[in-house]
Amino acid sequence: MVHAASTLRLDAGPVDYALVALYFVFVLGIGLLARRGVSSSIDFFLSGRSLPAWVTGLAFISANLGAVEVMGMSANGAEYGFPTFHYFWIGAVPAMLFLGVVMMPFYYGSGVRSVPEFMRMRFGPGAHLVNALSFAVAQILIAGVNLYLLGSIVNVLLGWPLWVSVLVAAVIVLSYITLGGLSAAIYNEVLQFFVIVAALLPLTLVGLHKVGGWEGLRDKVTHSPGGAAQLTSWPGNALSGFANDFLSVLGIVFGLGFVLSFGYWTTNFVEVQRALATHSISAARRTPIIGAYPKMFIPLIVVIPGMISAVLVPQMIDYKQAETSGGATGDVTYNQAILYLMKEVLPNGLLGVGLAGLLAAFMAGMAANISAFNTVFSYDLWQQYARRGRGDRYYLRVGRYATVGATVAAVFTSFIAAKFQNMMDYLQTLFSFFNAPLFATFILGMFWKRMTAAAGWIGLVAGTGSAIIVFILHKTDVFHLSGQGSSFVAAGVAFVVDIVVSIAVSRVSTPKPIAELVGLVYSETPKQRRTDPEAATLPWYQRPVLLAGIALALVIVLNIAVG
């Protein structure tokens, strides 16, 4: 995709450029307005803990609606079809509900400013340092994915060299985060959510019309490489890489649905940070639950366009045919599925909305990565290990410097992303390294009071190391799985190794005193510490457990209906 400019150019007109320019004016304007509310580090990093749940709920989902969702999932849709729904209905919603119902009371109630800080309180400095460093590295790498794709849009729109496009995109995102901190990022994410939907919904409807409606799409997909298996979500062999149906289902449910999904949604500070910006425990719990509702239906405007592109756009049809037969050459990749579809079906005006939607998605994703990075760097690394006891304004200044440094680093990591034909392959690999072992440590430490500080950091290192070993074995052809199966296996291995090592180390080391585990371990935390005192007076539509139950029922229905 590095040479995408030679083969893909969008025929944008003046009205399209005007719409994109107007969008950028709004984005920077929100940054300037948000700056007025930044007078302390808590304002900059956590929006003063004052935002309403509906704002943080939309920001929660928009922060994830970056490269992973739009380019990655449309690429998966073009390559695999319906099995991609698993990333939403198996690999997201259940974990989001678990975060809201079970884990947010601990995060919010303990008063922590970040997920690594929770690790320090539960396990001490060893696990804290390992988690903070691995999280910081992961955010720079993932911000690079969003920045690379953001630069690619500028590249195909204006024809600028990719490196120039990446730099321009970086400067725009840097501007509004440095000005307004997390508030600027969150309010922009709410705007970006609506812009993304406004872009992708017309693209889906126009694409379906061009392909002959739903029946036309089913017919064309059935007769395309991959065949009718792309129209059922189970057993998803092509996605998991397992030929055996049982192993495929096991890999998707355990590797993706449990380890990768729960690891990402429940311990990823990028998401948790949005919930921590709210005004109460109930609002913090509702944040991921509110986000779960739009999350269920996003695949209809992300995955379906990828499938349409693979059977409608000549370049994508040729690429998929060649890729299936093992002879793919040239510059086309699955990552470009949605761009080619826009070029094929959107008239001027709608094309501008579509481009603004893609820019919004990648900016939301990158801003989320950078705002989470600057918090962890400032609070968990710089304040904890480099410069203790300085004034609040000093750490606010460090946060702004960290934002600049992270953006510069993301420019360089953006070109690592260019080496992957399907962006989800890269992202799932990163998640198996960082998120899977972290979830194992979290879940064991939250429900087993005997787990020790030494087990916290040794388990994390062992889990991450085992995932890297699986990755190397796969890359050196010691074993081979197509699709994203190797990431599912790496995540499962990392989780199991972390649990086993943590239990073993805990047996031969000393646990923390029980009194120090209040608010950190489920069995030692009184119910009043885990609940909002005003929760009983809330109307039914603001009660987290009831909202989560309705969402769970809906996602079960969707799984059965599409299965």
UniProtKB/TrEMBL annotation:
InterPro entries per record: Na/Glc_symporter_sf, Na/solute_symporter
GO molecular function: D-glucose:sodium symporter activity
Keywords: Membrane, Transmembrane, Transmembrane helix
Main location: membrane
Highest taxon of source: Bacteria
Localization per record: Membrane
GO cellular component: plasma membrane
Transmembrane segments: 17-34, 46-67, 87-108, 129-154, 160-179, 191-209, 246-265, 296-317, 350-377, 398-418, 430-448, 455-473, 485-505, 545-562
Signal peptide bounds: none
Matching PROSITE patterns: NA_SOLUT_SYMP_3
Membrane topology: Multi-pass membrane protein
Family: Belongs to the sodium:solute symporter (SSF) (TC 2.A.21) family.
Protein name: Na+/galactose cotransporter
Organism: Nocardia panacis
Organism classification: Bacteria, Bacillati, Actinomycetota, Actinomycetes, Mycobacteriales
